[in-house]
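re the bet — no i am not wrong, look at it urself. input seq straight from the record:
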Amino acid sequence: MEPVDDSGSHTPVVQRLVRCPNCGGDSVYAPSNPSRPFCSVRCKNMDLGAWASESFRVAANPQAGDADLDDTSLQ
């Protein structure tokens, strides 16, 4: 069944292919792919595991107050 837009006409759904961030393969970026932008549940879970194991990190500049946190004499 094709979706119907506001004017009542049938419009085809265009499926966009994007590169899977994990394996680099083709991935359908559409509601029909619950793992989007990943190509599969496996790639999605591998990415989640990498974040959970802190393999990926977001770079940040040290703040002035961060030096105090490294001082073990305060603990």
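see?? The longest strand covers residues 16-19. told u. also The radius of gyration is 22 Å. so pay up
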